[in-house]
Amino acid sequence: MHVAVSAGAGAGRFGFTTGQVIQEFLYDDDVDPSVRTAVEASTGNELVDEDYGDVCDGAIIWWRSDDGEQEDLTDLLVDAQSNLDDGGLIWVLTPKPGRDGHVVPADIEEAASTAGMLATSATSVGESWNGIRVAARSRSQK
């Protein structure tokens, strides 16, 4: 399934809702600030960083080809999942094709599968980024 998401209106389409705590991984100066602002507006909370030590409701991972190998993304997905409340959503955001750092969706899907997760949908997020939703297993299924 492919869902078009504009950065300004897209945060709600990520599945994040008011009051949720969303953890952000691999923030850098190339991320789309309008995506971050939209997520914060839809949840009413600032994004928390990767060092946040409590349970979260969702996660955003900004992933580029030079952030590591597929195994590194698998490890990061496992780390992000370990902080999630049951049913929490993870979005892996990557630069669009033709942009520096682009990652083919199959690599994300394989990393998710290796981590025991499932890549469920893809979306366009803003002008420069695509997103793939990764469904985490509930804690009761571990």
TrEMBL record:
Question: Superkingdom, according to UniProt?
Answer: Bacteria
Entries under Pfam families matching the protein = DUF3052 (PF11253)
InterPro entries to which the protein is assigned, alphabetical: DUF3052 (IPR021412)
Q: What is this protein called?
A: DUF3052 domain-containing protein
Q: Which organism is it from?
A: Georgenia deserti
- Give the taxonomic lineage as stored in the record: Bacteria, Bacillati, Actinomycetota, Actinomycetes, Micrococcales
